[in-house]
Amino acid sequence: MEPGKHFPRESGSSMKIAVCMKQVPAVSEGNMDPKTGVLLRAGMEAIVNVYDLAALEAALRMKESIDASIHVFTMGPSKAESVLREAFAMGADEGWLICDKAFAGADVLATSYTLMQAIRAVGDFDLILCGKQTTDGDTAQVSGGLARWMDIPHANWVTEVINISHKEINVRYNMENSTVTASMSLPCLVSVEKDFFIPRMPSLKLKISGKKKTVHVLTIEDLEDQDKKHYGLSGSATKVRKIFPPPRTKHQEPVTFDGDKAAEYILSQLSDVNLF
Amino acid sequence: MKKANIEEWSGILVYVECRKGKVHPVGRELIGEAWRLAEKLKTSVYAAAAGARLDDVSGQLADCPLEQLYLFETEDEYTPVVYEKIITGCIEMLKPAIVLIGGTHEGRALAPRLAVAFESGLTADCTSLEIDEEGNLIQIRPAFGGNVMASILTAQSRPQFATVRAGIMEPVTAGHFQKMAVVRRRMNVTDERVRILGMKETERGDSITDQKILVVAGRGVRKKGDLEMLRELAKLLGGGLASSRALVEKGWMSPGEQIGLSGNTVSPQYMITCGVSGTVQFMAGIKQTKNIIAINTDSRSRIFEIAHYPVCGDLYEIVPKMIERLKCKSFE
Q1: How far is A81 from chain B (nearest CA, A)?
Q2: Which of B53, B159, B198, B310 could form a cystine bridge with B99, CB 3.0-4.6 A?
Q3: What is the dihedral sign for C-alpha B73, B76, B79, B85?
Q4: Range of lowest pLDDT (A12-26, B60-74, B195-209)
Q5: How many domains are contained in chain A?
Q6: Under an 8 A CB cutoff, do B80 and A185 touch?
Q7: Rg of chain A over CA atoms, in angstroms?
Q8: Which residue of A has its CA nearest to B249?
Q9: Considering the domain boundaries, does residue A275 fall inside one?
Q10: Chain A contact set for B213 (CB, 8 A)
């Protein structure tokens, strides 16, 4: 008997991992014109959200121990394709650009819904990986929303993937005052902490081959639900009523001294600290 | 988004997080805020807690202005899926217009699941809450990294979900309120998809939230190696080193060392910020700090607005001199 027949490989038993990544402005602390209230974002360089690189790294590490294909999903304008090229250079297998005018202006609810529709349109995934948060939206809420739309369990703040099989994944994650070890059956969603999955350097070879790879584009017509009212601004439950500069409190007049005088001044303020 | 018949939804529900039967401090802060909002809306405040040991929870909240307190007793430790089912049931029964959840690890895993379950809006990490003329919740939070504030409405769906970090709202103060009704239920909700295998307390002591003195590094620090100088200063002062978000994103500092809305809320006795500009999201994390000494080269930087001792100068000139002086002192 051939070895392969004794332990038959089920067809399609290779694991499918989806990684969600987002393009964000390189400078997270955007400013606004104090007079017009318009955000000064034009000309800002766009980069991959650093937290999402950790999610891709986690997927790549899993692929080293288990047969898997890694699909990266990014939602954004056509220039967000560069996110997928960067992911290819690190080792991602497929790249999906979720791009349609109908998707613009989405809040947590509509973003997570769009991601669910896109991921489902591509296939049945065993595992979805997300970064902890984005540097622009900063809410850390989309992953949990996506898990709920997919009707699968999820874990946030994952610091370690202890093991993974075709049936389940064991992870360690941080709560405020404790570290929890949990086992989740697949499919599920895992959102990782960035410092525990330091992303690998892109490989030159993969970078070159990645340039030739096809980036798959998903528009609203590729999704099961094609009702525009469910996406973007119109599908969002929250609406930004206004954007305004933070109220300025009373300006304290700063003191100006040279280095040594300033040092003396500061240390004198620490008078009731028992330093020695 | 699921459009709701707004009139069917009223009252404010506070999710009270409990760990080992102890109410998380953010719970009292949310109840305090809910009470303030409820007075404007002329409505009631409800609270719900879930967990394995809830015997003493009603005692800890006895002085709170609650109409009803729901205690859902569970077999297992917290998992987002099980708690989602329990709190979803509670929301379906109560139909509150507003649900407030602490922006803790637990709350931020739970809140998006609940918001999606009701296909309603969620605003994370609000720094201020108001009521508009139509009775909607105005949710204010920093946006675009924190130099801009956004006021956000969930006008057409219900409930309006909002999370608030610990240390942002004023906790409820004891008062002579009408005695609340306590509803206690044993829940047999389980989910075989998630099993908690173990839980270990994190060792306390070195965390930036425990320090009496904090030196805080900001964007004004030019390279990673320069952090050593600030670390030395912190050590000489008997304190710890923390940072603003910029340095965490650069990978120079770890998320555990980050101060701000997206990091930790701290309240040391003394804080010395070095090259921190003071974004709204940073300042939200230092509200309770008694003595803030700020070093910054820009006399117009926002940190000077809340610093008790604003010093306009270069950290690269001042910090070495402070180290020098502290070292001299230790030889005296």
Answers
A1: 22
A2: B159
A3: negative
A4: B195-209
A5: 1
A6: no
A7: 23
A8: A50
A9: no
A10: 270, 273
* Alpha-carbon distance values, B142 to A139, A240, B38, B138, B151 (Å): 10, 12, 24, 13, 9
pLDDT tens digit sequence for B93-140: 999 999 999 999 999 999 999 999 999 999 999 999 999 999 999 999
CA of residue B250 relative to chain centroid, distance: 23
A chain contacts of residue B236, beta-carbon cutoff 8 Å: 275
| A148 reaches B (C-beta below 8 A) | yes
Q: Do residues A260 and B266 lie in contact, with contact meaning Cβ atoms separated by under 8 Å?
A: no
- pLDDT means over runs of 10, chain A (276 residues): 38 84 78 57 78 97 95 96 97 98 95 98 97 87 98 96 95 91 97 91 93 96 97 95 77 83 89 59
Please indicate if any CB of chain B lies within 8 Å of the CB of A41.
Answer: yes
- Assessment of whether the complete model's pTM goes beyond 0.80: yes
Q: Bridge-partner residues for A174, per DSSP?
A: A179
Q: Amino acid identity of B18?
A: C
Which residue from B247, B280, B4 is spatially nearest to B126, judged by alpha carbons? B280
Which of B144, B230, B292 should one mutate to test binding to chain A, selecting the residue with the greatest count of A CBs within 10 A? Answer: B144
Structural domain harbouring A69:
15-230
User: Do B143 and A240 count as a contact with CB atoms less than 8 A apart?
Assistant: yes
pLDDT tens sequence across A38-55: 556 556 788 999 999 999
Half-sphere CA count of A220, side-chain side, radius 13 A:
13
Q: How far is A1 from chain B (nearest CA, A)?
A: 37
Q: How near does any CA of chain A get to the CA of B124, in Å?
A: 6
Measure in Å the smallest separation between the Cα of A15 and chain B Cα atoms: 18
User: Residue A201: which residues within 8 A CB-CB, separation 6 or more?
Assistant: none
Residues of chain B with C-beta less than 8 angstroms from the C-beta of A188: 193
Is residue A64 in a domain?
A: yes
Q: What is the CATH number of the domain that holds A157?
A: 3.40.50.620
A176 inside domain: yes
Contact A235, B292 (CB under 8 A): no
Tell me, rounded to whole angstroms, the distance of Cα A168 from its chain centroid: 22
B-chain residue closest to A113, CA distance: B116
Q: Is residue A235 part of a domain?
A: no
- Listed in sequence order, the residues at least 6 apart from A200 whose beta carbon sits closer than 8 Å to its beta carbon are A57, A60, A90, A91
